[in-house]
Amino acid sequence: MFPKDNEYDLVIVGAGLSGLCAAVAAQEKNLHTLVIEKGRSLGGDGNYVEGAMGVDSYLQKQENINIDPVELLQDELQYSHYEASAPHLKKYIDDSGNTIDWLHQLGVKFAKVGKQGKSWPTIHTFEGGGHAAIKVLLSHLQENNLVEIVTSLSAQKLLKNNGHISGLIVMDEATGEEREIKANNIILATGGYVDNPALVKRHINFTSRLMSVSDGKSTGDGMQLAWQVGADQYRMGAIQYGGGAIYDKTRPPFVYMASQLAVAATQEAILWVNERGERFVNEDVNDNMCHAGDAILTQARVFSILDQSTIDHLANVGLYKEIGNSPVSPDKLDNLKDEISGYLKQHVKFLTQADSVNELATKLNLPELKDTIEHYNDLVQKGQDTDFGKAKEYLTPLEQGPYYAVELGVGMACALGGLKVDNQNQVLNSHGYPVPGLFAIGNDAAGMLVGDTYAVTLPGSTAGYAAFSGRNAVKSIN
Ligand SMILES: Cc1cc2nc3c(=O)[nH]c(=O)nc-3n(C[C@H](O)[C@H](O)[C@H](O)COP(=O)(O)OP(=O)(O)OC[C@H]3O[C@@H](n4cnc5c(N)ncnc54)[C@H](O)[C@@H]3O)c2cc1C
Protein backbone atom coordinates (compact mmCIF):
# COMPACT_ATOMS: atom_id res chain seq x y z
CA MET A 1 0.00 0.00 0.00
CA PHE A 2 1.23 3.51 -0.82
CA PRO A 3 0.71 6.73 1.20
CA LYS A 4 -2.32 8.94 0.54
CA ASP A 5 -0.28 11.95 -0.61
CA ASN A 6 2.73 12.46 -2.85
CA GLU A 7 4.27 15.26 -0.80
CA TYR A 8 4.93 15.77 2.94
CA ASP A 9 6.75 18.28 5.20
CA LEU A 10 8.59 15.36 6.75
CA VAL A 11 9.13 11.68 6.03
CA ILE A 12 10.36 9.46 8.87
CA VAL A 13 11.98 6.23 7.71
CA GLY A 14 11.43 3.51 10.35
CA ALA A 15 8.64 3.19 12.91
CA GLY A 16 10.70 1.91 15.84
CA LEU A 17 11.26 3.68 19.14
CA SER A 18 13.10 6.70 17.69
CA GLY A 19 10.86 7.05 14.62
CA LEU A 20 7.66 6.98 16.68
CA CYS A 21 9.03 9.51 19.20
CA ALA A 22 9.92 11.77 16.25
CA ALA A 23 6.42 11.23 14.84
CA VAL A 24 4.74 12.31 18.09
CA ALA A 25 7.02 15.38 18.21
CA ALA A 26 6.13 16.17 14.58
CA GLN A 27 2.45 15.85 15.41
CA GLU A 28 2.94 18.29 18.29
CA LYS A 29 4.32 20.75 15.69
CA ASN A 30 1.51 20.08 13.19
CA LEU A 31 3.94 18.91 10.52
CA HIS A 32 2.40 17.05 7.60
CA THR A 33 4.25 13.81 8.28
CA LEU A 34 4.58 10.37 6.77
CA VAL A 35 6.16 7.46 8.65
CA ILE A 36 7.19 4.47 6.55
CA GLU A 37 7.99 1.09 8.08
CA LYS A 38 9.43 -1.78 6.07
CA GLY A 39 8.11 -4.43 8.45
CA ARG A 40 4.52 -5.53 8.84
CA SER A 41 4.48 -4.54 12.52
CA LEU A 42 5.44 -1.35 14.32
CA GLY A 43 7.89 -0.58 17.10
CA GLY A 44 11.06 -2.31 15.85
CA ASP A 45 13.45 -3.40 18.60
CA GLY A 46 11.81 -0.72 20.72
CA ASN A 47 9.28 -3.45 21.57
CA TYR A 48 11.94 -5.36 23.53
CA VAL A 49 13.69 -2.63 25.51
CA GLU A 50 13.67 -2.79 29.27
CA GLY A 51 14.38 0.82 30.00
CA ALA A 52 15.62 4.24 28.98
CA MET A 53 18.39 6.49 30.28
CA GLY A 54 17.57 9.74 32.03
CA VAL A 55 19.28 12.20 34.35
CA ASP A 56 17.24 14.42 36.67
CA SER A 57 13.85 12.93 35.73
CA TYR A 58 10.66 13.22 37.81
CA LEU A 59 11.31 9.66 39.06
CA GLN A 60 14.89 10.33 40.12
CA LYS A 61 13.67 13.45 41.97
CA GLN A 62 11.06 11.31 43.76
CA GLU A 63 13.73 8.77 44.68
CA ASN A 64 16.28 11.42 45.71
CA ILE A 65 18.74 10.20 43.10
CA ASN A 66 21.11 13.04 42.31
CA ILE A 67 23.63 12.78 39.49
CA ASP A 68 26.12 15.49 38.63
CA PRO A 69 25.76 15.74 34.81
CA VAL A 70 29.29 17.11 34.35
CA GLU A 71 30.83 14.25 36.36
CA LEU A 72 28.72 11.80 34.36
CA LEU A 73 29.87 13.37 31.08
CA GLN A 74 33.52 13.18 32.13
CA ASP A 75 33.12 9.56 33.16
CA GLU A 76 31.48 8.56 29.89
CA LEU A 77 34.02 10.43 27.78
CA GLN A 78 36.80 8.59 29.54
CA TYR A 79 35.02 5.25 29.10
CA SER A 80 34.79 6.05 25.37
CA HIS A 81 38.49 7.10 25.24
CA TYR A 82 37.18 10.49 24.12
CA GLU A 83 35.81 8.96 20.93
CA ALA A 84 32.26 9.99 21.87
CA SER A 85 31.24 13.50 20.82
CA ALA A 86 31.39 15.63 23.98
CA PRO A 87 28.90 18.30 22.76
CA HIS A 88 26.40 15.74 21.53
CA LEU A 89 26.65 13.55 24.62
CA LYS A 90 26.31 16.66 26.80
CA LYS A 91 23.16 17.79 24.97
CA TYR A 92 21.68 14.30 25.32
CA ILE A 93 22.53 13.99 29.03
CA ASP A 94 21.22 17.50 29.77
CA ASP A 95 17.90 16.82 28.02
CA SER A 96 17.51 13.18 29.05
CA GLY A 97 15.51 13.77 32.25
CA ASN A 98 13.20 16.08 30.36
CA THR A 99 12.77 13.37 27.70
CA ILE A 100 11.74 10.81 30.36
CA ASP A 101 9.27 13.38 31.76
CA TRP A 102 7.85 13.93 28.24
CA LEU A 103 7.30 10.19 27.78
CA HIS A 104 5.73 10.05 31.23
CA GLN A 105 3.37 12.91 30.39
CA LEU A 106 2.36 11.10 27.20
CA GLY A 107 1.29 8.19 29.42
CA VAL A 108 4.36 5.92 29.32
CA LYS A 109 4.66 4.25 32.72
CA PHE A 110 7.99 3.61 34.43
CA ALA A 111 8.22 0.89 37.07
CA LYS A 112 11.51 1.96 38.65
CA VAL A 113 14.79 3.75 38.14
CA GLY A 114 18.23 2.47 39.10
CA LYS A 115 21.50 0.81 38.20
CA GLN A 116 22.33 -2.13 35.98
CA GLY A 117 25.35 -3.95 37.38
CA LYS A 118 28.08 -1.43 38.16
CA SER A 119 26.60 1.65 36.54
CA TRP A 120 25.11 5.08 36.99
CA PRO A 121 21.50 4.89 38.30
CA THR A 122 20.00 6.03 35.00
CA ILE A 123 17.84 3.22 33.64
CA HIS A 124 14.11 3.95 33.84
CA THR A 125 12.44 0.57 33.47
CA PHE A 126 9.27 0.61 31.36
CA GLU A 127 6.25 -0.91 33.09
CA GLY A 128 5.12 -3.63 30.67
CA GLY A 129 8.41 -3.37 28.73
CA GLY A 130 9.17 -1.38 25.60
CA HIS A 131 6.08 -2.80 23.92
CA ALA A 132 3.85 -0.90 26.36
CA ALA A 133 5.70 2.34 25.61
CA ILE A 134 5.33 1.77 21.86
CA LYS A 135 1.58 1.27 22.37
CA VAL A 136 1.31 4.62 24.15
CA LEU A 137 3.16 6.42 21.32
CA LEU A 138 0.93 4.75 18.72
CA SER A 139 -2.25 5.63 20.61
CA HIS A 140 -1.24 9.31 20.49
CA LEU A 141 -0.65 9.14 16.77
CA GLN A 142 -3.93 7.32 16.12
CA GLU A 143 -5.91 9.81 18.23
CA ASN A 144 -5.16 12.77 16.00
CA ASN A 145 -4.54 11.17 12.63
CA LEU A 146 -2.18 13.99 11.65
CA VAL A 147 0.65 11.59 11.03
CA GLU A 148 0.21 8.89 8.40
CA ILE A 149 1.92 5.55 9.06
CA VAL A 150 2.35 3.01 6.27
CA THR A 151 3.77 -0.46 6.95
CA SER A 152 5.45 -2.87 4.50
CA LEU A 153 6.89 0.17 2.75
CA SER A 154 10.65 0.61 2.63
CA ALA A 155 12.94 3.48 1.71
CA GLN A 156 15.03 2.58 -1.35
CA LYS A 157 16.79 5.79 -2.39
CA LEU A 158 17.09 9.37 -1.20
CA LEU A 159 16.62 12.17 -3.74
CA LYS A 160 18.37 15.54 -3.80
CA ASN A 161 17.68 18.73 -5.73
CA ASN A 162 20.33 21.48 -5.81
CA GLY A 163 22.13 19.83 -2.92
CA HIS A 164 19.02 19.71 -0.67
CA ILE A 165 17.02 16.59 0.15
CA SER A 166 13.90 16.64 -2.04
CA GLY A 167 12.28 13.26 -1.44
CA LEU A 168 12.76 9.53 -1.64
CA ILE A 169 11.84 6.41 -3.56
CA VAL A 170 9.76 3.97 -1.55
CA MET A 171 8.91 0.35 -2.34
CA ASP A 172 5.84 -1.69 -1.46
CA GLU A 173 7.43 -4.77 0.17
CA ALA A 174 4.52 -6.98 -0.95
CA THR A 175 4.51 -6.11 -4.66
CA GLY A 176 7.96 -4.62 -5.29
CA GLU A 177 6.28 -1.57 -6.84
CA GLU A 178 8.11 1.73 -6.34
CA ARG A 179 6.91 5.33 -6.00
CA GLU A 180 8.47 8.76 -5.49
CA ILE A 181 7.46 10.81 -2.44
CA LYS A 182 8.44 14.48 -2.19
CA ALA A 183 9.70 15.91 1.11
CA ASN A 184 12.26 18.55 2.06
CA ASN A 185 13.01 16.82 5.33
CA ILE A 186 13.77 13.16 5.91
CA ILE A 187 14.61 11.54 9.23
CA LEU A 188 16.44 8.21 9.11
CA ALA A 189 15.37 6.01 12.04
CA THR A 190 16.19 2.53 10.75
CA GLY A 191 17.75 1.02 13.88
CA GLY A 192 21.43 0.58 12.92
CA TYR A 193 23.13 -2.41 11.31
CA VAL A 194 23.25 -5.32 13.77
CA ASP A 195 21.34 -7.54 11.31
CA ASN A 196 23.66 -6.81 8.40
CA PRO A 197 26.34 -9.56 8.64
CA ALA A 198 28.53 -7.97 5.94
CA LEU A 199 28.73 -4.63 7.78
CA VAL A 200 29.20 -6.29 11.18
CA LYS A 201 31.92 -8.50 9.74
CA ARG A 202 33.70 -5.54 8.19
CA HIS A 203 33.78 -3.55 11.41
CA ILE A 204 34.29 -5.98 14.26
CA ASN A 205 36.17 -9.15 15.02
CA PHE A 206 33.36 -11.35 13.73
CA THR A 207 32.83 -14.95 14.80
CA SER A 208 29.92 -17.33 14.42
CA ARG A 209 29.52 -17.10 18.21
CA LEU A 210 28.05 -13.61 17.81
CA MET A 211 24.26 -13.79 17.72
CA SER A 212 21.87 -10.91 17.03
CA VAL A 213 18.93 -10.72 19.42
CA SER A 214 17.31 -7.99 17.32
CA ASP A 215 14.12 -8.49 15.27
CA GLY A 216 16.18 -8.96 12.11
CA LYS A 217 15.21 -5.66 10.47
CA SER A 218 18.18 -3.53 11.55
CA THR A 219 20.05 -4.06 8.31
CA GLY A 220 21.85 -0.71 8.10
CA ASP A 221 19.47 0.74 5.50
CA GLY A 222 19.53 4.30 6.83
CA MET A 223 23.30 4.68 6.72
CA GLN A 224 23.60 3.08 3.30
CA LEU A 225 20.96 5.44 1.88
CA ALA A 226 22.73 8.41 3.48
CA TRP A 227 26.20 7.39 2.26
CA GLN A 228 24.81 7.40 -1.30
CA VAL A 229 23.93 11.10 -0.97
CA GLY A 230 27.28 12.16 0.47
CA ALA A 231 27.05 11.42 4.21
CA ASP A 232 30.28 10.61 6.01
CA GLN A 233 30.88 6.95 6.91
CA TYR A 234 31.55 7.49 10.57
CA ARG A 235 32.87 5.46 13.49
CA MET A 236 31.42 1.95 13.25
CA GLY A 237 32.06 -1.12 15.35
CA ALA A 238 30.52 -0.41 18.77
CA ILE A 239 28.10 -3.24 19.45
CA GLN A 240 25.67 -3.37 22.35
CA TYR A 241 26.67 -6.84 23.53
CA GLY A 242 24.17 -8.53 25.78
CA GLY A 243 27.08 -10.35 27.49
CA GLY A 244 27.39 -14.12 27.50
CA ALA A 245 24.50 -15.99 25.91
CA ILE A 246 23.63 -19.63 25.41
CA TYR A 247 25.35 -20.73 22.21
CA ASP A 248 22.78 -22.58 20.15
CA LYS A 249 22.87 -22.25 16.39
CA THR A 250 19.64 -24.22 15.99
CA ARG A 251 17.24 -21.71 17.55
CA PRO A 252 16.91 -17.91 17.50
CA PRO A 253 18.76 -16.35 20.48
CA PHE A 254 15.65 -14.61 21.88
CA VAL A 255 14.33 -18.07 22.86
CA TYR A 256 16.79 -17.96 25.78
CA MET A 257 16.13 -14.41 26.90
CA ALA A 258 14.14 -15.48 29.95
CA SER A 259 16.14 -18.66 30.52
CA GLN A 260 17.26 -19.28 34.08
CA LEU A 261 20.07 -21.52 32.85
CA ALA A 262 21.34 -18.54 30.85
CA VAL A 263 21.30 -16.42 34.02
CA ALA A 264 23.13 -19.15 35.98
CA ALA A 265 25.77 -19.55 33.28
CA THR A 266 26.31 -15.88 32.49
CA GLN A 267 25.19 -13.40 35.15
CA GLU A 268 25.72 -15.75 38.13
CA ALA A 269 28.85 -17.19 36.53
CA ILE A 270 30.97 -19.35 38.82
CA LEU A 271 33.79 -20.40 36.51
CA TRP A 272 34.36 -19.66 32.83
CA VAL A 273 36.90 -21.70 30.89
CA ASN A 274 38.10 -21.65 27.31
CA GLU A 275 38.49 -24.33 24.64
CA ARG A 276 41.43 -25.84 26.58
CA GLY A 277 39.63 -25.78 29.90
CA GLU A 278 41.66 -22.81 31.20
CA ARG A 279 40.22 -19.92 33.19
CA PHE A 280 40.81 -16.64 31.33
CA VAL A 281 39.04 -13.81 33.20
CA ASN A 282 37.46 -12.66 36.45
CA GLU A 283 33.88 -13.81 35.86
CA ASP A 284 32.63 -10.65 37.59
CA VAL A 285 33.33 -8.95 34.27
CA ASN A 286 29.64 -9.75 33.74
CA ASP A 287 28.85 -6.62 35.80
CA ASN A 288 29.37 -4.89 32.45
CA MET A 289 27.71 -6.97 29.75
CA CYS A 290 29.74 -5.39 26.94
CA HIS A 291 33.04 -6.08 28.68
CA ALA A 292 31.81 -9.64 29.27
CA GLY A 293 31.13 -9.91 25.52
CA ASP A 294 34.59 -8.56 24.72
CA ALA A 295 36.23 -11.04 27.13
CA ILE A 296 34.33 -14.05 25.79
CA LEU A 297 35.31 -13.15 22.25
CA THR A 298 39.02 -13.25 23.15
CA GLN A 299 38.73 -17.07 23.33
CA ALA A 300 37.94 -19.62 20.62
CA ARG A 301 35.23 -21.27 22.75
CA VAL A 302 33.88 -20.54 26.23
CA PHE A 303 32.13 -22.83 28.71
CA SER A 304 30.47 -21.85 31.96
CA ILE A 305 31.05 -24.58 34.55
CA LEU A 306 28.54 -25.35 37.30
CA ASP A 307 28.22 -28.19 39.77
CA GLN A 308 25.23 -29.64 41.57
CA SER A 309 25.73 -27.59 44.73
CA THR A 310 25.80 -24.28 42.82
CA ILE A 311 22.66 -25.31 40.94
CA ASP A 312 20.98 -26.26 44.25
CA HIS A 313 22.01 -22.95 45.78
CA LEU A 314 20.68 -20.88 42.88
CA ALA A 315 17.44 -22.85 42.77
CA ASN A 316 16.71 -23.20 46.48
CA VAL A 317 18.57 -20.51 48.40
CA GLY A 318 18.94 -17.63 45.96
CA LEU A 319 21.27 -15.74 43.70
CA TYR A 320 24.92 -15.10 44.49
CA LYS A 321 24.79 -11.60 43.04
CA GLU A 322 22.27 -8.99 41.89
CA ILE A 323 21.32 -9.21 38.26
CA GLY A 324 20.39 -5.61 37.50
CA ASN A 325 17.20 -5.19 35.53
CA SER A 326 17.18 -8.68 34.06
CA PRO A 327 13.65 -9.89 33.24
CA VAL A 328 14.41 -13.07 35.20
CA SER A 329 13.28 -13.33 38.84
CA PRO A 330 15.79 -11.62 41.12
CA ASP A 331 15.20 -14.00 44.08
CA LYS A 332 15.72 -17.63 43.13
CA LEU A 333 16.16 -19.55 39.89
CA ASP A 334 13.32 -21.86 40.86
CA ASN A 335 12.82 -23.19 37.34
CA LEU A 336 16.51 -23.92 36.82
CA LYS A 337 16.43 -27.67 37.56
CA ASP A 338 13.39 -28.26 35.31
CA GLU A 339 15.06 -26.30 32.53
CA ILE A 340 18.24 -28.36 32.84
CA SER A 341 16.43 -31.70 32.77
CA GLY A 342 14.36 -30.51 29.80
CA TYR A 343 17.47 -29.54 27.83
CA LEU A 344 19.22 -32.80 28.72
CA LYS A 345 16.22 -34.75 27.43
CA GLN A 346 16.40 -32.76 24.19
CA HIS A 347 20.16 -33.55 23.91
CA VAL A 348 20.95 -29.91 23.17
CA LYS A 349 24.56 -29.34 22.12
CA PHE A 350 25.20 -26.38 24.41
CA LEU A 351 24.65 -28.28 27.68
CA THR A 352 26.87 -31.15 28.83
CA GLN A 353 26.44 -33.07 32.08
CA ALA A 354 28.97 -35.48 33.61
CA ASP A 355 29.34 -37.28 36.94
CA SER A 356 32.94 -36.19 37.41
CA VAL A 357 35.26 -33.39 36.28
CA ASN A 358 37.34 -35.94 34.39
CA GLU A 359 34.29 -37.16 32.48
CA LEU A 360 33.26 -33.58 31.64
CA ALA A 361 36.78 -32.80 30.43
CA THR A 362 36.78 -35.91 28.23
CA LYS A 363 33.33 -35.27 26.80
CA LEU A 364 34.25 -31.72 25.78
CA ASN A 365 37.94 -32.26 25.08
CA LEU A 366 39.07 -29.72 27.70
CA PRO A 367 42.55 -31.02 28.68
CA GLU A 368 43.25 -28.42 31.38
CA LEU A 369 39.82 -28.53 33.07
CA LYS A 370 40.77 -30.79 35.97
CA ASP A 371 43.82 -28.67 36.93
CA THR A 372 41.80 -25.47 36.47
CA ILE A 373 39.04 -26.61 38.82
CA GLU A 374 41.51 -27.87 41.42
CA HIS A 375 43.37 -24.56 41.32
CA TYR A 376 40.13 -22.57 41.40
CA ASN A 377 38.87 -24.51 44.45
CA ASP A 378 42.20 -23.78 46.09
CA LEU A 379 41.72 -20.03 45.51
CA VAL A 380 38.18 -20.31 46.92
CA GLN A 381 39.50 -22.02 50.03
CA LYS A 382 42.14 -19.32 50.53
CA GLY A 383 39.44 -16.68 50.00
CA GLN A 384 41.50 -14.73 47.51
CA ASP A 385 41.53 -14.81 43.73
CA THR A 386 45.21 -14.09 43.26
CA ASP A 387 44.83 -14.82 39.53
CA PHE A 388 42.14 -12.40 38.37
CA GLY A 389 40.83 -10.62 41.48
CA LYS A 390 37.27 -11.91 41.69
CA ALA A 391 35.44 -10.54 44.73
CA LYS A 392 35.71 -12.86 47.73
CA GLU A 393 31.93 -13.17 48.20
CA TYR A 394 31.56 -14.64 44.73
CA LEU A 395 34.29 -17.26 45.10
CA THR A 396 32.23 -20.45 45.18
CA PRO A 397 33.73 -23.95 45.06
CA LEU A 398 32.92 -26.57 42.42
CA GLU A 399 33.12 -29.87 44.28
CA GLN A 400 29.91 -31.83 43.97
CA GLY A 401 28.90 -33.78 40.90
CA PRO A 402 27.20 -33.98 38.59
CA TYR A 403 29.07 -31.19 36.80
CA TYR A 404 27.63 -29.10 33.98
CA ALA A 405 29.16 -27.08 31.13
CA VAL A 406 27.12 -24.53 29.20
CA GLU A 407 28.70 -23.27 26.00
CA LEU A 408 28.51 -19.50 25.63
CA GLY A 409 28.32 -17.19 22.65
CA VAL A 410 27.68 -13.45 22.78
CA GLY A 411 24.34 -11.75 22.15
CA MET A 412 24.21 -8.51 20.17
CA ALA A 413 21.28 -6.13 20.79
CA CYS A 414 22.24 -3.35 18.41
CA ALA A 415 25.13 -1.88 16.44
CA LEU A 416 25.96 1.79 16.78
CA GLY A 417 27.74 4.10 14.38
CA GLY A 418 27.80 4.69 10.65
CA LEU A 419 26.61 8.29 10.51
CA LYS A 420 27.88 11.54 12.00
CA VAL A 421 25.32 14.10 13.13
CA ASP A 422 25.44 17.61 14.57
CA ASN A 423 23.61 18.81 17.66
CA GLN A 424 20.35 19.10 15.68
CA ASN A 425 20.79 15.47 14.52
CA GLN A 426 21.45 16.67 10.97
CA VAL A 427 23.54 14.17 9.02
CA LEU A 428 27.04 15.50 8.24
CA ASN A 429 29.24 14.97 5.21
CA SER A 430 32.96 14.19 5.44
CA HIS A 431 33.75 17.93 5.61
CA GLY A 432 31.61 18.26 8.74
CA TYR A 433 28.73 20.12 7.06
CA PRO A 434 25.07 19.04 7.01
CA VAL A 435 23.46 17.27 4.10
CA PRO A 436 20.59 19.79 4.03
CA GLY A 437 17.24 18.26 4.96
CA LEU A 438 18.66 14.92 6.15
CA PHE A 439 18.50 13.84 9.80
CA ALA A 440 19.44 10.61 11.61
CA ILE A 441 18.19 9.46 14.99
CA GLY A 442 18.20 6.43 17.29
CA ASN A 443 20.77 3.73 16.60
CA ASP A 444 21.48 5.27 13.17
CA ALA A 445 23.11 8.22 14.96
CA ALA A 446 24.10 6.68 18.29
CA GLY A 447 27.71 6.19 17.21
CA MET A 448 28.10 9.77 18.46
CA LEU A 449 27.80 8.50 22.05
CA VAL A 450 30.41 5.76 22.13
CA GLY A 451 33.97 4.66 21.49
CA ASP A 452 34.74 1.06 20.61
CA THR A 453 32.57 -0.38 23.42
CA TYR A 454 28.95 0.44 24.17
CA ALA A 455 28.53 2.28 27.48
CA VAL A 456 26.62 -0.07 29.75
CA THR A 457 27.85 2.26 32.47
CA LEU A 458 25.02 4.55 31.33
CA PRO A 459 22.24 1.95 31.17
CA GLY A 460 19.28 2.59 28.90
CA SER A 461 21.35 4.95 26.80
CA THR A 462 20.23 3.79 23.34
CA ALA A 463 16.53 3.79 24.21
CA GLY A 464 16.87 7.16 25.94
CA TYR A 465 18.76 8.43 22.93
CA ALA A 466 16.07 7.12 20.57
CA ALA A 467 13.50 9.28 22.36
CA PHE A 468 15.79 12.30 22.82
CA SER A 469 17.11 12.33 19.25
CA GLY A 470 13.65 11.86 17.74
CA ARG A 471 12.40 15.01 19.46
CA ASN A 472 15.68 16.84 18.92
CA ALA A 473 15.64 16.38 15.14
CA VAL A 474 12.04 17.58 14.82
CA LYS A 475 12.79 20.80 16.76
CA SER A 476 14.67 22.29 13.81
CA ILE A 477 12.15 21.24 11.13
CA ASN A 478 9.42 23.73 10.10
C1 LIG B 1 16.28 -7.53 22.79
C2 LIG B 1 16.72 -6.11 22.87
C3 LIG B 1 16.67 -5.44 24.08
C4 LIG B 1 17.09 -4.12 24.16
N1 LIG B 1 17.01 -3.48 25.37
C5 LIG B 1 17.42 -2.21 25.47
C6 LIG B 1 17.28 -1.51 26.71
O1 LIG B 1 16.75 -2.02 27.70
N2 LIG B 1 17.73 -0.23 26.77
C7 LIG B 1 18.31 0.38 25.70
O2 LIG B 1 18.74 1.53 25.83
N3 LIG B 1 18.38 -0.23 24.50
C8 LIG B 1 17.96 -1.50 24.35
N4 LIG B 1 18.03 -2.14 23.13
C9 LIG B 1 18.57 -1.42 21.96
C10 LIG B 1 17.43 -0.94 21.02
O3 LIG B 1 17.86 -1.23 19.71
C11 LIG B 1 17.23 0.57 21.09
O4 LIG B 1 17.12 1.08 22.37
C12 LIG B 1 15.99 1.07 20.31
O5 LIG B 1 15.16 0.11 19.78
C13 LIG B 1 16.55 1.92 19.18
O6 LIG B 1 15.51 2.52 18.49
P1 LIG B 1 15.62 2.73 16.92
O7 LIG B 1 14.42 3.48 16.53
O8 LIG B 1 16.94 3.23 16.55
O9 LIG B 1 15.54 1.24 16.31
P2 LIG B 1 14.25 0.27 16.24
O10 LIG B 1 13.41 0.46 17.44
O11 LIG B 1 14.74 -1.10 15.97
O12 LIG B 1 13.45 0.77 14.95
C14 LIG B 1 14.00 0.74 13.64
C15 LIG B 1 12.83 0.52 12.67
O13 LIG B 1 13.24 0.89 11.34
C16 LIG B 1 12.66 -0.03 10.43
N5 LIG B 1 13.41 0.00 9.17
C17 LIG B 1 14.66 -0.46 8.93
N6 LIG B 1 15.02 -0.23 7.65
C18 LIG B 1 13.97 0.39 7.05
C19 LIG B 1 13.73 0.86 5.72
N7 LIG B 1 14.62 0.75 4.72
N8 LIG B 1 12.52 1.44 5.45
C20 LIG B 1 11.57 1.54 6.42
N9 LIG B 1 11.74 1.09 7.69
C21 LIG B 1 12.93 0.53 8.00
C22 LIG B 1 12.77 -1.36 11.18
O14 LIG B 1 11.90 -2.32 10.63
C23 LIG B 1 12.39 -0.93 12.61
O15 LIG B 1 10.99 -1.03 12.82
C24 LIG B 1 17.58 -3.46 23.01
C25 LIG B 1 17.62 -4.14 21.78
C26 LIG B 1 17.19 -5.46 21.71
C27 LIG B 1 17.24 -6.15 20.40
UniProtKB/TrEMBL annotation:
Arranged from A to Z, the UniProt key words for this protein are:
FAD, Flavoprotein, Oxidoreductase
Cofactor dependence is on: FAD
- One GO BP annotation of this record: steroid metabolic process
What sequence ranges are listed for the domain FAD-dependent oxidoreductase 2 FAD-binding?
Answer: 9-448
Q: Name one Pfam family in it.
A: FAD_binding_2
Q: Which GO terms describe its molecular function?
A: steroid dehydrogenase activity, acting on the CH-CH group of donors
The signal peptide stretch is none
Protein name per UniProt: FAD-dependent oxidoreductase
- Species this chain originates from: Lactobacillus amylovorus
